[in-house]
């Protein structure tokens, strides 16, 4: 079992939570008072998070969330979210932290981000027989995508007006639309795409081109500096002690490359 967090994190948490004059230490104080860290995760986003054979959520994000809760010495509550409701869940304080969030200027107006903790890029995938080499080739093509996600905004920005973008409410529906022939292509992350490339050789799927490289961050509400520092320190600790490499090797099949964590 890998070491979850450096021992120093617990000390940092205490110092930040009970800082000068008893002032409120933002979301961190609320988490410690309740004894629960509420983390928003997708339920169908393997290998980052998905339901295992025992009906519990498993994956890269789940292991990292468990590490965070252990470091904070609180219980972990996993809250299932979708691409369209997860930001409102965060801003409405139904969750304390969101996993697997891509950082962009629009989102930074509403929420705050930790440093990157996982590699992620978005690609267009289609059958080998479909001739697509770049965004201009999406003209008059049908493409499935998860509504309200970074994949959706990236595809919408890049695709010609004649592209038929079909939005679905979860990744399972996005993949099913592609595999059943409802659409010609799909725009997904490297994680989802890897499953299709590996398991569906009958249609010879392949990655056509990348839309965007956007490593995953934890997202929290703005104006929560104490919580932000604790989470950043936790990610630093997992990088330094090798536990994040172990998570990556287990779920993504390779250790982390620092270049993959640069926005």
Automatic annotation (TrEMBL):
Q: Iron as a keyword? A: no
Q: In the record, which residues are listed under signal peptide? A: 1-25
**Sorted UniProt keywords:** Signal
Question: What's the superkingdom here?
Answer: Bacteria
Residue intervals of the Solute-binding protein family 3/N-terminal domain: 36-255
Has keyword Signal?
Answer: yes
Name this protein carries in UniProt: Transporter substrate-binding domain-containing protein
Report the source organism.
Answer: Lichenifustis flavocetrariae
């Amino acid at each position: 079992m890998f070491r979850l967090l450096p021992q120093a994190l617990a000390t940092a948490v205490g110092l930040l939570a009970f800082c000068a004059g008893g002032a409120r230490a933002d979301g961190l104080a609320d988490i410690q008072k309740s004894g629960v860290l509420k983390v928003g995760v997708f339920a169908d986003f393997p290998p980052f998070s998905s339901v295992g054979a025992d009906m519990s959520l498993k994956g890269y994000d789940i292991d990292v969330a468990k590490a965070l809760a252990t470091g904070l010495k609180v219980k972990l509550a996993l809250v299932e979210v979708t691409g369209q409701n997860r930001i409102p869940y965060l801003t409405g304080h139904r969750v304390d932290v969101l996993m697997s969030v891509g950082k962009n200027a629009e989102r930074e107006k509403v929420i705050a981000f930790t440093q990157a903790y996982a590699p992620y890029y978005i690609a267009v995938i289609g059958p080998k027989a479909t001739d697509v080499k770049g965004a201009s080739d999406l003209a008059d093509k049908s493409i499935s995508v998860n509504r309200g996600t970074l994949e959706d905004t990236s595809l919408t920005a890049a695709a010609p007006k004649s592209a038929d973008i079909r939005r679905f409410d979860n990744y399972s529906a996005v993949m099913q639309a592609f595999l059943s022939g409802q659409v010609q292509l799909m725009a997904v992350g490297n994680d989802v795409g890897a499953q299709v490339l590996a398991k569906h050789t009958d249609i010879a799927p392949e990655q056509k081109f990348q839309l965007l490289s956007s490593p995953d961050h934890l997202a929290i509400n703005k104006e929560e500096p104490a919580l932000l520092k604790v989470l950043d320190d936790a990610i630093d600790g997992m990088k330094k002690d090798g536990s994040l490499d172990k998570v990556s090797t287990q779920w993504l099949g390779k250790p982390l490359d620092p270049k993959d964590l640069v926005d």
